[in-house]
Amino acid sequence: MENNQTKNQMWVLTLICGILAIPFYFLHDIIGGANYPGYHWMEQAVSDLTATDAPSFVIASGYVTIYKIFTCICCACLPILMRNKRKSLRIGIYLFSIMQGISAIGYSLFPLTGSGYDGSAQSFIHVYILTILVVLLSIISLIMISIGSFKEKYWLLGIMSIVTLASMFFGVVGSQNAPKEYFGVFERFSTYSVTIYTGVLAVYGFTKRK
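User: That's the sequence. What structure does it adopt?
Assistant: Structure tokens below.
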């Protein structure tokens, strides 16, 4: 009985943190942009708001830090709570959680030193090492989660995993090929989809808990 109660408490914590993370990410974008004179969200990346030389650095970093805390708590609980699911689903959840941890810690340690890409070593790590690693882990984890979801007959989660993966691809391809004045629009397809998907995992895990 005590173990079940503890597990239910962890599910509630996971659910709350997964949901609360979403608005704080949007707030860091909206309020950060409002405190960045001349910022053009359709053209610029979200990470420009937390660049160390950005006027919005302090306020945007505050909101995104809260987002990262909620996300890390959620993703720390998910692998424990999903350990009895099919192997492919478990591996996908583990990789997704690792990706979120790398994203939260890595981007905090190596924020952009200037808007866009200024060629510094710190910005190089942010753009070409952390981002590539995060994207690869996101792709692999979403594929594994979708496979495991269909095996578990979690049809909606499987479909949402594929939709999230497609949204990420759309964002990556679009940001690389679209006119630069629309870079920010496509880039947000990738960042927003992963943010929302974390909440989806928390909600779906809560509703399917055993």
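The chain has one domain: 2-207.
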